[in-house]
Write a structure and sequence with these properties.
Distance between the termini: 16 Å
Largest sheet: 7 strands, antiparallel
Strand content: 35-45%
CATH topology: PH-domain like
Strand order of the largest sheet: 4-3-2-1-7-6-5
Number of domains: 1
Number of strands: 7
Length: 148
């Protein structure tokens, strides 16, 4: 497995539970993805998705670069300092692994992984940069995608 970011190699990171294990630390442009066919259904589903995810999906309406950390229990979203590129001490949000499923993976040079959240109409879109593109396939496989 490719090591993306040495900042996440520290086992006692404050966002991690005592026995939680980091599987994939990477960075990505994180935004929302519409998973339904019609805009009306999408608008109705937005409110439901915000309620189920505790408002987390609403935080990604404007895509922005951040650290995405897949652990053996959760998918964490950590703020990235836009000037230095280093992780900030701000946890933007987290989702349990059981609530996520890979919908599709597109692109080879800059892969985009679309994840559904608990089967709702709005999901997450992770655009993984070229230098760490293999992390996109590892994350997709963790949530049920097979192959590139």
């Amino acid at each position: 497995m490719q090591k993306s970011n040495s900042a996440w190699s520290i086992p006692s990171h404050p966002f991690l539970a005592e026995d939680e294990r980091v599987e994939v630390p990477t960075e990505a442009m994180v935004g929302t993805a519409v998973l339904t066919k019609t805009a009306l259904a999408s608008a109705a589903a937005t409110a439901a998705t915000l309620a189920i995810s505790g408002g987390l999906i609403g935080a990604f309406f404007v895509p922005r670069k951040q650290y995405v950390v897949l652990t053996d229990r959760r998918l964490l979203f950590v703020e990235q300092n836009q000037m230095t590129g280093r992780p900030m001490p701000n946890l933007i949000g987290e989702l349990p692994r059981s609530a996520l499923k890979t919908v599709r993976v597109r692109g080879r040079l800059v892969p985009v992984v679309t994840l559904s959240v608990a089967g709702e109409a709005k999901g997450l879109k992770l655009r993984v940069p070229w230098p760490v593109r293999r992390d996109a396939y590892t994350i997709a496989a963790a949530f049920g995608h097979s192959g590139h």
